[in-house]
């Protein structure tokens, strides 16, 4: 039981917070248990600052016990039996034993409290999430595992306490949670869990977009998202959440490097993850997975036997917006992912390394704050197995990044603005505010992108020529 020993050590380190908490509850004659994901993560050596507890004390009693002890206190979950506090760096949630289903909880705030720890554990989603550690005045005191979650944890298997049908019937979101744990923990689904998802996957449609999205975020940002996405697709769950992903299976990859666009996209996701600098990058990961979702809808068979996907980046960006909005993603995330999908072919537009200053400026300008991610996405998008071609493409990416760095050293590439502002334009042309000023501004910005920074005299000269050449100003 090396894992259990690891958990014991992890929990010893928390004695400062566990022991006083255990003392508070014990002296009032109540039981207190660390429970759920906190125990699972302690055993796996990945426990963070969030600690979940369960107790026989009713929420009002918990509130009374914690009021003088905690640094901060919130009771937004109190109608569901949960009291939240902060103590030092720890965010602590204490929930009274529950005996109702999770689906009831999400639909109906009428709570049914349980009498024993076991009442509470059997209603949980998976056995690995249904272990508890009794907390007393000495801190962690006893390991409680009536559903043998430890065996499942050692075997790396996601299984349910009762039958999967019962667990998923209680809360269909758990089907997606199961797949999310593949990504976070690298575990496998027990065959009966897999089977139940294939049979019940349409029930996920009962779940609100917000809850689905929260799980998807954890899934895509986990350590094993490819395996999780594949499980989501193979069990049929993806069909009800993001049908565009299995939709990519229908379309052959035109480079014939992969079986289909779906396999190519998984490889791009993997390569994008390898290029991340630190924390998982949600936007980059979604963009990598979804960059080609416009392909099935734009596929055309060409006369010579080839296939084309004209404008798949435009169609794909639109599809991303629609799907991510439906999943209630924040506006900024939707537009960043959609913009990356829209821009992912920009690199190829310039051919083999023929990057003029103007092309570099336009690329940087169009990418805006997404530049770093766009560079990663275009690199990741190279999945050819032809070594010579891959090397040539890598050189092109290196070349582009060097060209950007060189030009940045010479001029401000970050926020390209026209060399004259709106006021200067109005003064020079003698026009009032109106659409003409906007047109002139855009003309000067194009010029700035083409030619780089201009002196005030050059900019004024260019603006005068533009003005004189307008049909209404001639003759
Ligand atoms: N639909 C759900 C949601 C949660 N739980 C239980 O509630 C605990 C806490 O839920 P949550 O915080 O959502 O998940 P964690 O497992 O803690 O994982 P994470 O903190 O990574 O989200 C879970 O461990 C599980 O025991 C459940 O049984 N059914």
TrEMBL record:
InterPro entries recorded: Bact_CCA-adding_enz_type3_sf (IPR050264), HD/PDEase_dom (IPR003607), HD_domain (IPR006674), HDIG_dom (IPR006675), NT_sf (IPR043519), PolA_pol_head_dom (IPR002646), PolyA_RNA-bd (IPR032828), tRNA_adenylyltransferase (IPR014065)
| Top-level taxon | Bacteria
Q: Output the PROSITE patterns linked to this UniProt entry.
A: HD
Q: Which residues form a coiled coil?
A: 383-417
Pfam families associated with the record: HD (PF01966), PolyA_pol (PF01743), PolyA_pol_RNAbd (PF12627)
* Residues covered by the HD domain: 261-377
Q: List the Gene3D superfamilies.
A: Beta Polymerase, domain 2 (3.30.460.10), cca-adding enzyme, domain 2 (1.10.3090.10)
Cofactors that this protein relies on: Mg(2+)
Q: Which UniProt keywords apply?
A: Coiled coil, Magnesium, Metal-binding, Nucleotide-binding, Nucleotidyltransferase, Transferase, tRNA processing
Which PANTHER family does the record cross-reference, listed alphabetically? CCA TRNA NUCLEOTIDYLTRANSFERASE 1, MITOCHONDRIAL (PTHR46173)
Q: What is this protein called?
A: tRNA nucleotidyltransferase
Species of provenance: Gordonia paraffinivorans NBRC 108238
């Amino acid at each position: 039981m090396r894992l259990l020993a690891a958990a014991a050590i992890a929990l010893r380190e928390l004695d400062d917070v566990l022991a006083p908490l255990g003392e508070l509850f014990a002296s009032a004659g109540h039981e207190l248990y660390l429970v759920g994901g906190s125990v699972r993560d302690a055993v796996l050596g990945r426990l963070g600052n969030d600690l979940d507890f369960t107790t026989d004390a009713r929420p009002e009693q918990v509130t009374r016990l914690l009021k003088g002890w905690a640094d901060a206190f919130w009771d937004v979950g109190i109608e569901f039996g949960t009291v939240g506090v902060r103590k030092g760096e720890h965010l602590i949630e204490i929930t009274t034993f529950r005996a109702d289903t999770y689906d009831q909880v999400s639909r109906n705030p009428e709570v049914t409290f349980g009498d024993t720890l076991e009442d509470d554990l059997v209603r949980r989603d998976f056995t690995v999430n249904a272990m508890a550690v009794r907390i007393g005045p000495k801190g962690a005191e006893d390991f409680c595992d009536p559903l043998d979650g430890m065996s499942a944890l050692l075997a790396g298997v996601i299984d349910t306490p009762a039958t999967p049908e019962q667990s998923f019937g209680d809360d269909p979101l758990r089907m997606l949670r199961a797949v999310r744990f593949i990504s976070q923990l690298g575990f496998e689904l027990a065959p009966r869990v897999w089977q139940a998802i294939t049979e019940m996957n349409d029930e996920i449609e009962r779940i609100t977009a917000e809850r689905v999205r929260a799980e998807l975020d954890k899934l895509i940002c986990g350590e094993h998202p490819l395996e999780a996405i594949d499980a989501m697709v193979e069990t049929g769950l993806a069909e009800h959440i993001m049908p565009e992903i299995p939709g990519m299976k229908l379309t052959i990859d035109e480079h014939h490097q992969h079986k289909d666009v779906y396999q190519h996209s998984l490889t791009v996701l993997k390569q994008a993850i390898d290029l991340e600098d630190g924390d998982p990058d949600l936007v980059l990961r979604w963009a990598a997975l979804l960059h080609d979702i416009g392909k099935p809808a734009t596929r055309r068979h060409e006369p010579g036997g080839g296939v084309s996907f004209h404008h798949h980046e435009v169609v794909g960006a639109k599809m991303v917006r629609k799907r991510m909005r439906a999943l209630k993603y924040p506006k900024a995330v939707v537009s960043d992912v959609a913009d990356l999908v829209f821009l992912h072919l920009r690199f190829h537009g310039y051919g083999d390394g023929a990057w003029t200053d103007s092309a570099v400026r336009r690329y940087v300008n169009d990418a805006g704050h997404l530049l770093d991610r766009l560079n990663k996405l275009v690199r990741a998008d190279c999945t050819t197995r032809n070594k010579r071609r891959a090397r040539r493409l890598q050189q092109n990416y290196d070349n582009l990044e060097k060209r950007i760095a060189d030009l940045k050293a010479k001029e401000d590439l970050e926020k390209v603005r026209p060399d004259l502002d709106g006021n200067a334009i109005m003064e020079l042309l003698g026009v009032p505010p109106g659409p003409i000023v906007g047109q002139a501004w855009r003309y000067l910005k194009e010029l700035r992108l083409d030619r780089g920074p201009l002196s005030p005299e050059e900019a004024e000269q260019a603006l005068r020529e533009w003005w004189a050449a307008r049909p209404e100003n001639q003759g």
